[in-house]
Design goal:
Helix 3 crosses helix 9, helix 5 runs antiparallel to helix 6 and helix 7 crosses helix 9. This protein starts with a helix and ends with a helix. The chain folds into two domains: 254 residues, Aminopeptidase (3-Layer(aba) Sandwich); 115 residues, Alpha-Beta Plaits (2-Layer Sandwich), CATH 3.30.70. It is built from nine helices and 16 strands. By secondary structure, the chain is α/β, with parallel strands linked by helices.
Length: 378
């Protein structure tokens, strides 16, 4: 891709970085993407609430290939002081979705100028990846009325050499979901705790239970991690014993099958503890991510694209521990996700000083365009 086009994408990426929006609030981001595409003669349509949908139809029979990027930001205060720092207090692009979007815009420009020879190419600029709602919204949209033969996505990866492609057969990311446990008892005077039902002992038992039910050893196939994220009980009123408490945990396993068993055990033990302490129990689940299954056929396409671009690559032995809602697509269609190194000294994802490295925008475009061409040829 010409240097001028890459510079335009870098400028656009920095514009997105300055104007971040959190999951399901990306209305201005959606408008910016549609406008940027329109300037290149590409029609972008709204999908999934605040997403964007682009279709390239060759008019000839062939495979339907879908590429997906994401564009939501995080509720994190940026601490960088460069010119394109976030202008929105408490919100910033700390996972690189601004870069993912710039890459997909570059892919769109490439195939506008170099039309596919057969089949259809679908580009999905997906909202709300961070809370796990975006993929659901796209799949539920009436505009998503086709079945892709192959689906692909990528993520930038700090800690790996710049431009290195990171691949993993089978599961690329974990299954993840968060549980909210609500315990309702009865308040009493702090001088008469025997007249109330305090959730404190139950919460203490729950913390121990989560530790016992977890299997944090990364080398085990039944790896199951429970991380406490929020615990709340009572009020700061020292004459009253607590009558209500909440416990929030995030659960992670290598795959969805282990997650099903892990979650069922957690619920059974929680019900037993609540019953023992005479507490009314309510359980809610939120931010659910299916494990991201990398299928053999699309993985072979990715390997061919790596070879065509003469890129260095690294094969992981275990999935990444973070969740990715692209897993919802790979649960339904043959697909795969790969990573591109953001630099070994790059700050970690979700850190307040992180910034997407513009050097890998062209790498991402080259990988995706090669993937599409190899998938069509195959």
């Amino acid at each position: 891709m010409e240097e001028t086009a890459i510079n335009d994408l870098i400028t656009f990426r920095k514009e997105l970085h300055q104007h971040p929006e959190v999951s399901q609030k990306e209305k201005e981001t959606q408008k910016r993407i549609i406008h940027f595409l329109k300037e290149s003669g590409i029609e972008g349509k709204p999908i999934g609430g605040t997403g964007v949908f682009v279709m390239f139809d060759s008019g000839r029979e062939g495979k339907t290939i879908m590429l997906r990027s994401d564009h939501d930001a995080l509720p994190i205060q940026e601490i960088n002081d460069f010119k394109h720092k976030s202008l929105i207090d408490g919100v910033s692009h700390k996972c690189g979705h601004d870069g993912h979007t710039a890459i997909m815009c570059g892919v769109a420009k490439y195939f506008k100028e170099n039309p596919i020879s057969e089949g259809m190419l679908i580009l999905v600029f997906q909202p709300a990846e961070e809370n796990g709602e975006g993929a659901k919204a796209v799949l539920a949209d009436d505009l998503f009325d086709f079945e892709p033969d192959l689906v692909f996505a990528m993520h930038n990866l700090p800690g790996y050499p710049l431009h290195q492609v990171v691949i993993k057969d089978k599961n690329f990311t974990t299954a993840a979901k968060s549980i909210i446990i609500k315990l309702s008892g009865k308040t009493s005077h702090a001088a008469e705790p025997e007249l109330g039902i305090n959730p404190a002992k139950a919460i203490a038992e729950l913390i121990g239970m989560f530790e016992r039910e977890s299997e944090p050893e990364l080398n085990r196939d039944d790896f199951a991690l429970a991380s406490p994220v929020h615990i709340d009980m009572g009020e700061k009123s020292y004459g009253i014993t607590a009558g209500y408490g909440e416990v929030h945990y995030t659960l992670r396993t290598w795959n969805s099958e282990v997650m099903k068993d892990f979650a069922e055990r957690i619920v059974r033990r929680t019900e037993e503890i609540a019953k023992t302490h005479q507490l009314k129990l309510d359980i809610d689940w939120t931010e659910e991510f299916d494990s991201n299954n990398n299928h053999p056929a699309p993985m072979e396409v990715i390997r061919k694209a790596i070879q065509a671009n003469e890129l260095d690559y690294f094969e992981r032995q275990r999935p990444f521990k973070w969740g990715e809602d692209f897993g919802l697509f790979t649960q339904q269609f043959p697909g795969a996700m790969f990573g591109i190194g953001s630099g070994e000294a790059c700050p970690a994802l979700h850190n307040p000083d992180y910034d997407f490295p513009d050097e890998i925008i062209e790498t991402g475009i080259n990988m995706f365009t090669a993937i599409v061409e190899k998938a069509i040829d195959g």
